[in-house]
Amino acid sequence: MKTGTILFLSILILSAFSLRAGAVTIKNRGWRITYDEQAKSFDYDYKGLRIFANARPEATCDIPGIGTKTLTPASFATMQYTRNKVDDNFGKGTCHTFRFSGTSASVALVQKIYTYDKRPYILTEVELTGDAGISSNYLAPVVTETSVAWFPRSEQNRMLFVPWDNDGFIRYECHKLTGELTSYEVTSLYHGDSRKGVVLGSVEHDTWKSAVRVKSADNGTVEQLCCYSGASSDITRDKLPHGKVKGNSVKSAKMMLGVFDDWREGMNAYGEANTCVLPIRSTWTQGAPVGWNSWAVLANHLNYKAAADASDFFRNTLYPKGFHNRQGKVVLDLDSFWDNMSEDQLRQYVRKCEENGQIPGIYWCPFSYWGDNGDSYVEGTQNKYKYKDCFLYVNGKPHKQGGYCVDPTHPAIKERMAYQFKKFKEWGFKYVKLDFVTNGAVQGDSYYDKNVTTGTQAYNQGFSYLLGLAGDDMFLSLSIAPLFPYQYGNSRRISCDAWGTIGHSEYVMNALSYGWWTDKLFQYNDPDHIVLQKDGETEGENRARITTGVVTGMILLGDNFSTDEPSKTGNPKLSIERAVQLLDNKDILALASLERSFMPVYGYKSFRGTHYGAESVFMLRDGHHLYVACFNYGAEGDLSDSVSMEALDIDPRKVVSVKELWTGRSVAVENGELHYDIPGKDARIYRITLE
Predict the structure, then answer these.
(1) Percentage above 90 pLDDT, the chain
(2) Domain 599-690 classified CATH 2.60.40.1180?
(3) Which intervals of the chain form a coiled coil (predicted)?
């Protein structure tokens, strides 16, 4: 008898035995998942802790001749269980398949649970199959309305809100475990002091916008939970329900479920799990962007003289002080209104940057039209198409989100992308900031490509085409952009726009507090332009804002460094003075050259105790050094506090020395704690040297 036949028979024998026993049990690395045939539901346990009780897969299905039905295992008469070995990008493991069937409509509901030999988490997905074409815009691998208590009741229990994109000055949020919450693509529910937590999120982003919906109570009980594909709301920038996916088989995104001793490591693992499905865009080999972006202060006053002066200032003054990345590179990026310059001036600017040893950058919005005339012809199409031909329509009207949204699948938009990138390359630009790309992911009434029915599919198609135009040697910087899909940018801005005041620093650090792990999805996290002088910022505010860049991994200054420009475009003289003063610090620049994002020490001690505030203390381990960054976001006065070595995960007996990098002062660790005093609207960074 052949090996395959033996394996097939063993699967059938196992399945039949399990069903006669009234249950199927999956065991793997602390997981115990049990399907109860009578209850037609699953119990998920991890190391004896009940994670989900009476959970089920669920989906809506449009069935020809019948209509729309909500299907669960209880909708079907029979269940067949099989298991098969897998060896994929997650490693070796087992796919456990539960096929629910036996209705007059010839539709089946299939739940797959993947366990792996070397992964601390499981993956799951749900699929609808049918002989005739079916469609759905809601598939949920895990739904439960049975209360469970993962942690003892505590004021420190938290549930994390992750925004779908970074538009509209949206924030990450960290709620107490009471009330209702919908987090997009991923969430974590965790206990503050112990750091134990559960992480749930989608790891596929080719078709769906996904979300996790939670209802909790009494700071300790999860009453309802739903992980689903088919999310649509104002948060996803949609005015329509999620598009329906059609075919003989319709599958949800694959979802990760993990229980971790440290929820922060769980979020890191989640980020890395996504890259097992699709790798990050890691084509850039010239280091993290360090340098200048024109938007913050010059904005629409951008001109050749101001840009050229910035290039010379960075080359002649800041570069000798060490202000460059670890490969000695500096980026000089022209933002919106670069078209104030002629093509000759743009070419001249590129030559100046190259002569100064710098990387020239430029800006564009591939999925937006910023004009107001739909009858105007689309650039690069030889007058074949007008903009009204390729607008994205919502409820029959052109959809505007800042600029007009355009259909990424339309040939006119692809021709426009080819036209624009050809120009960028001819001019010599190597770095492109891509803005308002969220407009390409909005759910539309329909698309030029009739095989596309969801905003995420359209976004993927348009951006895949753009990626081919850019090639591997261009840095693509995503600005206003969804967090997922991630594979199109070398960097992504972690927040919406931020300038230089302490409030802007706190806003940026909110995104790092709960989104530091996105550096697993992009080569670099981007804290937006670092502004020194726009609204009379203090020296402390400048220090804090630079620190946000240091601890995020990129520093692009945003000031006007041309003293010939009028006062309405900042304070060039003071900008130059502060830049020279604050960036003449080898310790700070050496830390920035690590090009890594810090993570929060606590994750539940937000500014002013609000659910939307930033954390104040962050950490990064690098060999024999542990760096601790502390912020005082308030203006009321000095912040005097301490952080324990235990919270920093180090043995105080291993501490050799502590140096504060902004002041250069040595600091002692006393009674196992690092004490810090920070003036109002300021920041400090401590380097702890360990044995």
Answers:
(1) 93
(2) yes
(3) none
